[in-house]
Amino acid sequence: MSGARILAVDDSASMRQMVAFALRSAGWEVDEAEDGVVALEKAKKQKYNCVVADVNMPNMDGITLIRHLRQLPDFKFTPLLMLTTEAGMDKKQEGKAAGATGWIVKPFDPDQLIATIRKVMG
Amino acid sequence: MAIDMRQFQATFFAESREGLDAMESGLLSLEAAGNDLDTVNTIFRAAHSIKGGAATFGFKAITNTTHLLETLLDQVRGGKRSVDAELSDALLASVDILRELLGSAEAGNPDDSGRSEPLNARLSELLNGGSAATPAATPHNPPAASSAAPEAVATTHWQVDFSPHENMFITGNDPLRILRELARLGPMDVNCDTSKLPSLSDLDPHTAYLAWTLELPVSIKRAHIADAFSWVEDECDLRIEGVGQKADSVAATPAVAVAPAAPVAAEPEPLATTPPVASSTAPAPAEGKSNVTPMASGKAAEPADSSIRVNISKVDALINLVGELVITQAMLKQQSNALDPTLHEKLLNGLTQLDRNTRDLQEAVMSVRMLPVEFVFSRFPRMVRDLASRLGKRVNLRTSGEGTELDKGVIERIVDPLVHLVRNSVDHGLETPELREAAGKNPVGTVTLSASHQGGHIVIEIIDDGRGLNREKILAKAAERGLPVNDQMPDGEVWKLIFHPGLSTAEQVTDVSGRGVGMDVVRQNIAALGGDIDIESVLGQGTRVTIRLPLTLAILDGMTVSVGNEIFVLPLGYVVESLQPGPGDIKRVTGSNRVLKVRSEYVPIHDMGEVFNVPRGPDTVRLGTVVVVENGGRKLALEVDELVGQQQVVVKSIESNYKRINGIAGATILGDGRVALIVDIVSIIRAQQAAA
Fold this sequence. Notes:
The complex is a heterodimer of chains A (122) and B (692). By secondary structure, chain A is an alpha/beta fold.
């Protein structure tokens, strides 16, 4: 599904750049946001085929972002993935409860990331 | 596809350093203000981000240390552990070690573990000894992988019973995607169970009704199959079973089945341990607690690409060019003075505009070099904390005016003097808590650092509420060294004695203030910046050191005066007034010394021609104008021939091109191409004082 648009949300510029770069190199359009608040604003103006969000962020964390996104009509079935370093299940459970589709465990390499996104984009 | 990750490393290093700064100031403010959830979250997030990046880029040593940090901080965040002095020390030490590790990673050594091992041991000890012994989290372990040990011997294929819960769609998951993924693993037999499918009229498109039974060859790893379902473990009933030829194989395959969605982790109450952090990480952490925290977290929230890094030499080249432009502009302006305004109206208008634009451009370019004083101040919380704990003192550091901007060159050269002065305040100025209490003071001493604009200057003050300078002691010491002192000297003079080379180091006995520069060097450094230092002190109440600095070293507002055939520039910051004394205003005192009566005050007066040995020809017009200058409370009247004007001049160093000349601060090129010397008022006043 090329031409699809993905929103990459991470407060760490290096991570965000890497994610965005990897996804762009796979042919997707990528928008970036540095926290949940910015991401939510963008999502209200623009439809995305997938959102990849870090969990720990200032202003609005990834799980809260997912909870808010899930309530937007445009994002009802959109794959919402969280980027998490913790293997700990609590974050994943919390994310799922908020409506996350799945998670990507950091560290990941760009190929892994692309493969995972490709999976959810069908 | 291979993506070169190195291109993101520079960003990682930069943001990690910022993160460490935020951690450091956060930790310091925690010490000051107690456990504050916002600050703890900020610190945690910083450690977390660094860990994430380090792991991605393969910096193992950093990952290991930040992992331990993160675990500790998570306990703090969850209220399971409080930040005591021991933990705080360890965390601050970690910040230091991480800085070093970042440095060596940047230098091409991704795993400098030797550096961090003692620290890691210390952190682990804290973790294990602490109240909350979290299971040493084994970082990224695909949950199901470990349980897949006995890859069933007699199994011929895998049977997967997959029945999604009705609400699977609402998390954006789709059984079709999972089936497609499984199909990619190998040939798959699919049987769909449509028994739950309602009639079309009752069908809710948001609900999952279908279930599947899948068969996959045994050559596929069980873990890979489980992986495909990992996101939906708790949104479906799932059973993955090794199936043999017939039922007889059951015995050989000891239940490898994973019951529906049984997460491996022993997690008593997953949701309670980490409350959602959204609301608590709101932008501005309570103001006023510490001046450091809001700064730090404000930085973190800043958009990533609001600034660029430019080599300082490029900026300096730009400033130089603008300096030349200013000179050219001044030249044009001067030439145009001779033109008839009616004939050349348009040209003159254009020149006026050029004047304005040049000034704006100059200001804009200069501002590029300006940095907030925070740049220097930010190092002090940590330094004061370490000092205080080493000296057994309790110190509260206050800072204000961090936003005040100063030229980068000035900032860099003010660091050492400030460090020395703050050290002095904590070491010599502040008393021990016991002494303070005995004196009826707050056992916690206060050191205040402030910066502000005052006229064309920046004023930095270091104020402590300590014991103050001891007049008798200083006088006794000075007499001991054979300095000309007497008991009647005003306080201001006595305090200045501590800048004397022989005296300044005399009192420095502790290891803290013993190293570094002495007070005489402090004064020299500040004087070299065109600045001035002043001390006020009250015994038993404290000391205030005031440093006045020029805004920038490159450009100065000057008053141009003529003496003989020469033009001199008097830095406007020192000029109090200019006047033409009436007859009888100038009085001769001892010998050749004269004083000028300015209103009710007598000011020593000197002829600039004499001071700089400028001969005056017979045709020199002398209007008898006097310029009164002031520095550090001392005034001096300078006789000049004529006031020429007032203009900004670009300072060119004489010292670096020729040699240092007493009484001259530099030179500049005037509009007509002539060189004018810039008078060093401070040294002239000092010389006059010494002579008097």
